[in-house]
Amino acid sequence: MKMFEYKKQLAKDLNCDINELIDFSSSINFLKPNINIDFNSLDTSVSPNYEKLNKKISNNYNLNINQFELFNGHSSSIFALFKYLNLTHCTLYSPINMKYKKACINFGYQLRTINRFEDIYLPVKADSLIVFLNPSFPDGKYYDMEKLIAYWKEQNCTILIDESFLPFCEGESCIKYLNNYEKIYILKSLTKFYGSDGVNVSLLISTIQNIEKLKRFETSWKISIFDVNYLQSAFEDRSFKSISKAINLKNKIELEKILKSSNLVDEVFDSNVNYFLIKLKNITAKEFQEKLKTFKILVENCSDFDFLDENYMKISVKDSKSNKTLKEAFEKIC
Predict the structure, then answer these.
(1) What is the pLDDT of residues 138-180, one digit of tens each?
(2) Does residue 81 contact residue 214 with C-beta atoms inside 8 Å?
(3) pLDDT at site 217
(4) How far apart are CA 91 and CA 113, in angstroms?
(5) From the CB of residue 116, how many other CB atoms can be counted at a distance below 10 Å?
(6) Cα 130 to chain center, whole Å?
(7) Residue 76 and residue 72: Cα distance in Å, rounded?
(8) Contact of 201 with 71, CB cutoff 8 Å
(9) Peptide bond preceding 138 in cis form (omega within 30 of 0)
(10) How confident is the model over 67-94, as pLDDT tens digits?
(11) Cis ω on the peptide bond leading into residue 135 (within 30° of 0)?
(12) Is the alpha carbon torsion for 303, 306, 312, 317 positive or negative?
């Protein structure tokens, strides 16, 4: 069951409005930029014009305007790239977003998973596709990529770095490696940091030549006039980045303290972003999910991720009021 349907069913079971639920499972920024636009004024009779948005993206990431392609959602960009590359082998550094394993299966890639928690420097097959999330998911660790990318280059690998959650930390983007290696693709979310799950737009970055070839297989209009105008307005809120980072950091410190002080938690993994992977003790993630329902709280069960078991779950940073409710829930369950 998809999360939205699950939330609808939970709200129905609890006889409450869906907006009353506190969704700690969602890693979307709980803060939102000031969107200064009247959507009723948009002319929907014409095709969307990407020129203004592309310029804003180009300036924001210091990119040539021909170095990237927009996609309607994270999955769309992943599936488009896997199909376009048409390689035979893929190495996933896991745990990892489950969409990547699905893409491997759908497009017939031979799949290998490397456990990031044990040894990220294991040998990889030459000429294969490498997928690495930085910061990682669901644990939120930022990695120094220099040594890894140097080795992957020696193996002539095609490299995909997913930086969807990079805006939540101070880490450096891998875009700089495009200057000396052409077989790199960088995937960014334009909407996770800007708090808009409903406006789900991603950005695939590579060399001008790679993007030009990729575009030959893509439709001209992938995102709507509403998506375009929302993102343009979000980029225009110049104070949002700094304010959002500061508030997320404050609330993250609150959340970490709650988690580490609970007798239900065995381990809290170090995180550089807006969510924590935790290992529970004396209770499974599924059991804990059930107990939290009475408090109208949702968390993510991570037992289906590679190399994680039934005791792992992810909890994302929310507002201080939600943190307080979570703390009370932990104390009562104990």
Answers:
(1) 999 999 999 999 999 999 999 999 999 999 998 999 999 999 9
(2) yes
(3) 87
(4) 6
(5) 20
(6) 17
(7) 6
(8) yes
(9) yes
(10) 999 999 899 999 999 999 999 999 999 9
(11) yes
(12) negative
